[in-house]
Description:
By secondary structure, the protein is α/β, with parallel strands linked by helices. The chain folds into four domains: 2-186, Rossmann fold; 202-424, tm_1862 like domain (pyruvate-formate lyase- activating enzyme); 440-525, no CATH class; 533-614, no CATH class. Helices cover 38% and strands 17% of the residues. The chain contains 22 helices and 20 strands. The strands form five sheets. It has a seven-stranded mixed β-sheet with strand order 2-1-3-4-5-6-7, sandwiched between helices. The chain has a six-stranded parallel β-sheet with strand order 8-11-12-13-14-15. A hairpin with a 7-residue loop joins strand 18 and strand 19 (585-597). The radius of gyration is 28 Å and the shape is globular.
Amino acid sequence: MKVILAAINAKYIHSNLAVRYLKSFAEKKLTEEKDILTENGSGCAAVIETAEYTINQQKEEIIADLYRRQPDVLAFSCYIWNMGYVEFLVRDFHRICPHTDIWLGGPEVSYDAPELLNKYPQVTGVMRGEGERVFTDLMMAYSVSESRTKEECGDRGICGKDEAFFGFLRDIRGITYRDASGRIRENGPAGIVNMDEIPFVYEDMQELEHKIVYYESSRGCPFACSYCLSSLDRVRFRSTDLVCRELQFFLDRRIPQVKFVDRTFNCRHSHAQTIWKYIRDHDNGITNFHFEIAADLLNEDELELLSGMRPGLVQLEIGVQSANPDTIREIDRVMDLDHLQKIVERIRKGRNIHQHLDLIAGLPMENYESFKNSFDRVYAMKPDQLQLGFLKVLKGSKMSRRSGDYDMVFSEAAPYEVYSTRWLTYEQLLELKAVEEMVEVYYNSAQFSGTIEELSGEETLGTAFNMFYMMAEHYRTHQLNGKKHSRLERFDFLRDFIRENLPEEKNGFYEEILIRDLYLRENSKKRPAWAKEHPEYKKIFRDFYIKESQNPEYLSGYENYDSRQIARMTHSEVFTYDISGGGEKGVHLVVFDYKNRDPLSGNAKMIEIPEGFLS
């Protein structure tokens, strides 16, 4: 019997941890029942495979691949970002392979399974809640039940099950299924899984070479935020000894990034501190670890520990969601915003940890003005990234049950994003989406960081929110939305925005700041048409490179290259303003060193040629 666990990821760089868990857990448990895994007259061996795709692939391409694999049982991992895609695959794959049993699992199908089975007669059943034990029990049922022979049903897999099979299904907790008569039955909820029983799922890392690697050291969340599902599960942890051994696997292989999927990683201080100490003490100089935390829970010992991390070793994602205290209370969130702000500022001053702060638009009690205040409050914390998200009214959440109390209008289809609330109109929400796009392009990309920092201090642009709103209006009035733009075009647009909204005497300074931002990120061979040239300084740069090739003093890592090669591998630029601060007039000759970058921002090192070369 062949079973395929199919994952439809949002992006190519993503990997699916859930299907790996189900496969490894089931294989471990079934291996302990070796008599079931061999052909013995009462069943057949279960061969479990995983298959990962993305929502950007052609659906027909996925159906063709699944058909060639010829599964007897096909199970899809379902989330808000892929449910519409999965529904198409379920319908059309069943047309081609009607004898293949199709099961669904995941958070998107765990809270309305009977309705889903009524809607999709092609689906055999739904696995609800945590899937490891449920899937394993299901594989046991398939393995020990008798199926019709190939002579009876052809080469299309399992086309019928005996009474023993349905007898097994009646005892499996956590499934909703069709019984022998086609009637939909729903068994009791599945129990939670002991985290230490889940096998480590990574072996051959070559298939994940260009993808994000996910890891889980705890499940559940101690908080009860009404928009979230994680609080529905009791918090439990994987043993730290086991975690540290497994993290060493990633460290030994110098994996670029490991992203913890724990909902609140630092909810148990001893757990967080043990893991953070381990990665600090075993740092390989390359691997980065990402954690989602509650910043206001960090204690002094943890802050001291984090302050001693190598720059780039750790990055933190911090959910603020709103600065409105009424909103925080209404969504059952526990947060001390003033304390959180102090923690974020302290971490930022350490210049060694990337911080990602989140806001959610569309929450109860938050109107347009309140959200603008939340945005400005969080922006003032100077996060490395500011994610402006929009409320998803998830099935099974308290927010879903109370949506009527808030006059919430939201999409009936996944991802169930809010359109309006009692406090926020659809038109206002569209304005927030336009602001979000500007934040993504000009702030979160980190490609315009110097320019945006300077603009944030311009009184004529008002608050940070107002600045990004004005950028969005610039895009709208110049009909720039809905089109693909190159990076250089984005620089042109920002320059035009500056020229339209700031005094003319500032144009020269901002053009040079834009050029600095351009070359901080990459050694661009293309240059904006408006960028000034200074051929009179070419000889000085040539002399600098010759001297560095003979006796390196300012550039490191170029020892085996001649002056011409070094010139091509770096970038030289003339600035007529002090772009490092103040904006005063004066000639500055700068070399951008791409071999030595800031470990947090990724920006090239800037080296100013000393005055001695100018004489």
